[in-house]
Amino acid sequence: MSQHATRPLPTTFDTPTAGEVLAAHLDVRLAAEPELQSRIGIIRDAFGGRIAFSSSLGVEDQAVLHAIADARADIDVFTLDTGRHFAETLETLDATERRYGRRIRLIAPAAEATEALVARDGVLGFRLSLENRKTCCDVRKVQPLRRALEGAAGWITGLRREQSAGRATVPFAAYDATLGLMKLNPIADWSQAAVEDYAARNEIPVNPLHAKGFPSIGCAPCTRAIEPGEDVRAGRWWWEQEDGKECGLHNRPKTVVSTNGATR
Ligand code: SF4
Predict the structure, then answer these.
(1) What is the distance between the terminal CA atoms of the chain, rounded to a whole angstrom?
(2) Distance, CA 11 to ligand 1 centroid (Å)?
(3) Whole-angstrom Cα distance, residue 192 to residue 233?
(4) Range picked from 113-127, 223-237, 247-261 for highest mean pLDDT
(5) What value does the CA radius of gyration of the chain take, rounded to a whole number of Å?
(6) Closest ligand 1 atom to the C-alpha of 141?
(7) How far is the CA of 128 from the centre of ligand 1 (A)?
(8) Burial class (CB in 10 A: 0-12, 13-18, 19+), 254
(9) Is the pLDDT of residue 166 over 90?
(10) Residues carrying an active site annotation
(11) Does residue 135 have its Cβ closer than 6 Å to ligand 1?
């Protein structure tokens, strides 16, 4: 373990600068700890307030949930119910609740906004333009996510650096000044093989679509299986150009100020 890893963590971040300092400490601590369950413990112990975990029910998030359950960490687990999930995703949700003996909070989009969106663009109007698609993601995902994260001190995700070029520099911890919370990515450094191995060893419920060519699973009308050799996120909004393909849940990773003054 590095010298940095033994430093005590500040426990609050009243200003963006304090948040960035804490992020830098946490980033080092998490990088030095190889076990996922212990990383979850570090995250839980670093904050006095609510820590939320937004699960998409993909295999990465299932791995994180398993570690949360193993660590018996007091973490608020929720998933965004966009109204457009695959049946297999709902089956995975049910199997997960039964396996871990807990409810996963479903966050639904605002009814009025959803009805207005469909009235304006049609039921599959998100394929007509990038603007339409981003509006749909905003109504069904981004706004509900913001509501679910309101008041939270930390937000855990299953983002990994390997998932796409846009995620290649995802840190373990970064202060999100817009949301006013710490964004925590405890499996940022895991490979796809490491995730699959962890899921198999721990008999974690996994969405059967993963075995059918869907490494990344989103809403049913916006996700297709990929061909061998394609990018793992190539099946998401496949009709769009590569550089626009995020739904707005995850902003581009921000630069982290490290404890030795370096940035990345
Ligand atoms: S992924 Fe597709 S259906 Fe789901 S919120 Fe975004 S545009 Fe709408």
Answers:
(1) 21
(2) 37
(3) 13
(4) 113-127
(5) 18
(6) 5
(7) 12
(8) middle
(9) no
(10) 247
(11) no
DSSP 180: T
Our answer on whether the CB atom of 134 is closer than 6 Å to any ligand 1 atom is no
Ligand 1 proximity of 226 Cβ (cutoff 6 Å): no
Which mutation among 137, 214, 216, 224 tests ligand 1's pocket best, with the greatest number of atoms within 8 A of CB?
Answer: 137
Question: What CA–CA distance (Å, rounded) separates 75 from 52?
Answer: 6
The residue type at 136: C
In DSSP terms, 80 is beta-bridged to 107
Residues in the chain: 264
**Rounded-to-integer distance, Cα 126 and Cα 117, Å:** 10
Say yes or no to pLDDT of 16 above 80: no
Measured from the CA of 218, which atom of ligand 1 is nearest? Answer: 1
d(CA 121, ligand 1 centre) in Å: 13
Domains (range + CATH), the chain: 9-208 (3.40.50.620)
Is the shortest distance between the CB of 180 and ligand 1 below 6 Å? no
Q: Which of 113, 165, 121, 164 is nearest to 143 (CA)?
A: 113
Q: For a substitution probing ligand 1, which of 131, 141, 239 has the most ligand atoms within 8 Å of its CB?
A: 141
Asked whether the whole model's pTM tops 0.90, one would answer no
pLDDT in tens, 75-120: 999 999 999 999 999 999 999 999 999 999 999 999 999 999 999 9
Count of alpha carbons within 13 angstroms of residue 264, beta-carbon side: 15
Query: Which amino acid is present at 28?
Result: V
What pLDDT is stored for residue 253 in this prediction? Answer: 39
Q: 138 CA distance to ligand 1 centroid (A)? A: 9
Instruction: Report the range of poorest mean pLDDT among 14-28, 108-122, 240-254.
Output: 240-254
Best-predicted range by mean pLDDT among 21-25, 144-148, 239-243? 144-148
